[in-house]
Amino acid sequence: MPYLEQFMQQWKAYLSNEFTAHGFVYLETKDGDFFDIKANSLVYFSWLRTTSRADDGFDESRDAIAWKMLERQLRELAKKAEKGTFDLVSKLHLEENQIQIVLNFSYDDEQHIVYVS
After folding, report:
1. What's the CA angle centered on 4, arms 62 and 71, to 5 degrees?
2. What is the superkingdom listed in this entry's lineage (predicted)?
3. Which H or E element spans position 115?
4. How far apart are alpha carbons 115 and 104 in whole angstroms?
5. If 0-12 CB within 10 Å is exposed, 13-18 middle and 19+ buried, where does residue 114 land?
6. Phi, psi at residue 95, to the nearest 5°?
7. Better-scored residue on pLDDT, 78 or 98
8. Spacing of C-alpha 69 from chain mean position
9. Which residues contact 39 (CB under 8 A, 6 or more apart)?
10. 106 pairs with which residues across the strands?
11. Long-range contact list for 23-31, CB < 8 A, 24+ apart?
């Protein structure tokens, strides 16, 4: 699923920018991008939880839930993108590479999750 990979790369870029802005280092291993993105996401969620009001009611298990919820959103958006791209290509006679989807990420500190739009 190419859109899932693209969306994961957008999340990775967002994470890298956030890490740089707050003095962290994005760690990369030989285990592959998916593992690196997940591990760095969990570090990021832990940091967000302990520096926001989310720390009042959540423990580290909520970080794993935040990751799962983010991953699920990215997967669902990738499915929609696949279908939507197919529809646009067939109806408007566009090339697939002419369609660009850019995601926005926003953190909800009350629920300790990242919304993707």
Report:
1. 10
2. Bacteria
3. strand 113-116
4. 8
5. buried
6. -85, 145
7. 78
8. 9
9. 27, 29
10. 115
11. none
Distances (CA, A) of 64 to 41, 45, 60, 67, 101: 9, 8, 7, 5, 26
When pLDDT is cut at 50, 70 and 90, the band that residue 1 belongs to is: low
Nearest to 102 by CA among 9, 1, 18: 9
Quote the CA–CA distance of 14 and 105 in Å, as a whole number: 8
Cβ-contact 40, 15 below 8 angstroms: yes
Instruction: State the Cα–Cα distance between residues 23 and 13, nearest whole angstrom.
Output: 15
Which tokens sit at 87? Answer: 């529809």
Euclidean distance between CA atoms 109 and 53, whole angstroms: 6
Residue 88's CB is within 10 A of a number of other CB atoms, namely 14
Core vs surface per residue 28-57: b (16+ CB within 10 A) or e: eeeeeeeebbbbbbebbbeebbeeeebeee
| Range name among 9-18, 49-58, 67-76 with the lowest pLDDT average | 49-58
Instruction: Give the span between the Cα atoms of 71 and 35, in whole angstroms.
Output: 12
Question: What is the pTM (predicted TM-score) of this model?
Answer: 0.89
